[in-house]
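Long-time lurker, first post.

We've been arguing in lab meeting about whether zinc ion would sit comfortably in this protein at all. Half the group thinks yes, half thinks no, and nobody has a model to point at. So I'm putting the question to the forum: if I give you the sequence and the SMILES, can you give me back a predicted structure of the complex? Inputs are below. Any interpretation is welcome too.
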Amino acid sequence: MLILGIETSCDETAAAVVADGRVVHSSVVSSQVDLHARYGGVVPEEASRAHVDLIVPVVRDALAAAGVTLADLDAVAACHGPGLAGALLVGVSAAKALALAADVPYVGVNHLEAHCGAGWLDHDLATPLAVLLVSGGHTLLVEVAARGEHRVLGSTVDDAAGEAFDKVARFLGLGYPGGPAIDRLAADGDRTAIAFPRAMPGELDASFSGLKTAVVQYVRAHPEAPVADVAASFQEAVVDQLVDKLARAADAVGAATLVLGGGVAANSRLRERTAALAAATGREVFLPPLALCTDNAAMIAAAAAVRLVADGPTPLDAGVDPNLGLG
Amino acid sequence: MTTVLAFDTATDVVTVAVGRHGAVVASRVVESGRAHAEHLVPTVRDVLAEAGLALTALDALAVGVGPGRFTGLRVGVTTAKALALALDVPVVGLGTLDVIAHPWRDDERDVVAVVDARRREVFWSRYRPRGGRLEPVVAPTVASPADLVAALGTDEVCCVGDGVDRYRAVLAAAPGVECLPPQYSAPSPLALCELADAACAAGAADAPDALVPVYLRESDAVINWEQARPGGPT
Ligand SMILES: [Zn+2]
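Top reply:
Settle the argument with this. Predicted structure of the protein with zinc ion, as C-alpha cells:
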C-alpha cells in the first residue's frame, strides 16, 4: 500500500511517499524557518501564504524522489489538525484534489497521532510505548498500547516546552528558533549554577510559564550571570521536569519502550537523560533521528495507513480541526 | 478544443463550472460561507459527473485568484494547482473582480466590481465597456467604502459584488451610482467559462507553479514589522 502524505499544519511544507505505513520511499520538507525568524515566531498568515507557493514543488519532488506517479498511489493523506487553520487548509485542499484526480481514497490524519507513530517508520517498537511529544506547539505524554491506540496521560497546563525555549531564547537575545540556540549555548554552561523551579512535581501534567518568569527575574537580578549558565540551568529545569514525568508515565502504563517525538526531541540533553532513564529502568528507548522528530509528511503517510485500515477513507467534504485532540 | 473546469472561491460563494468553447456544460453555485474546503472538491466531482466528463477529459483549468477572502482564495488556488499537477494540464488565473464585472460588459456606463475585504474595507476595480469587452480603468485596489465613493465622484457607474451588498447604503448615496442587486454578486458560471475560454485562446494558461493568489494586502505581521523599521525590509 503506497500512500502520499502531506503536512502543512505549521511552518513546514512537507510531502512523503511511504509504503505499507513503514517504508519511507521519499520525504521532502521545505522549512519556512527563515521566513518567520525576523518575527521571532510563526506568523499564521505568512505560513499559509508560503504553503500555497510551496505545495506543488514539494509534492512533485516527493513523487519524483520516490520514483512514482500519482497512478501508483493507493491513497493521499493530509494532516487535518491540530494546527493553524489557514495552513491546514492548504494541505487538505491539495490532498483532496490529488485523491480525486488519482481516484484513490483521501485520508485525514491527526498530527499528534502521526508524531506518536513516527517510531514505526523503518523500525519495530515493543509496546506499550510511553511517548513524550514535545515541540513548539505541544507537550504531551501519551500511552500507545498498540499502533493507532492512544491515551493522553498528561499535558502542559500553559506553554508548550518548545515555546518556553523560544521565549527564553528571545529574552536572552539568542534569536529564533530558540531550542537549538539554547542547546548549543548550554553545552558551555554549568547546568547546576542556578536552581530554577521544577513545576508540578509528582504529576503527569507539566507547566513552563513559571520557569520562564523565573529566568527573567533571575537575569534582571543578576545581570552579570554568564548567559551559558543561565541557558544550561534553564534547559536542565525543562529536561528534569519532562524526564520526571516520562518516568512516572512509563511506570503507570508498564511501558516496554520510551519514545521521544516533536522538535524539542532534538535537544541533546533530553535525549541523553531519556536514554539514561531507559537504561536505569530496563526499558527500550527509541530516539528518532531529527528528521522524524520535527514535522514531516512521512509520519502522516504512515499514520494514514493505520487509519485507512481501521476507519476507511475520509469523506471529501470533511474539513480541518485546528484544535483536534488525541484519544 | 477547449474543455475547461473553472471555479472561484474568493467570496462566500463557491462557483464551479465546466465549460466547452466558453459555453456552460454543467455548473453549481454553493452558498459556502467559510466552509470552502469542505465544499469545493465534492462540488467539482458532482459538476463533472453532471457534465458526464472524467477529469482526464479536461484540456485546462481556470481559477479565480482574487482579490477576496484569503482563506477561500487559498483553498481555490491550492485545489487548482494540485489538479493541474495531477492531470498535467495548464491552469489560468482569472481576476475575481473581472469575473464579477464580466456580465455587464454591454452596459453604457462604467462597471465597478466591489468585493468585501473585511476590516471595513473593499477590494474594487473599474472597467469601461467597449466593443463587448471590459477595459480596465482602475486596477484592483483596497479602500474604505467612503474612499471608493470619493474616487467615483459624480460619475455614472454601476456597482456589483458582495461589497455592494455589505455597503449598499454608503454606495447608493453616491450621486451617479446604481447598486446592482445581490443575485449578481457572486462570480457566475457563464462569466467563468467565457473568460477561461478567452484566456486559454490567448495562451494565458501556464504551469501550476505560476499561479499566485492576489492578496492586495500584506499580513499584519509584515505591516507591523515594516512600520517598526523605517528603512523597510532588509
Ligand atoms: Zn508537530
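For your lab meeting: Chain A has a mean pLDDT of 95. The domain at 125-289 of chain A is CATH 3.30.420.40 (Nucleotidyltransferase; domain 5). Whichever side wins, do check it experimentally.
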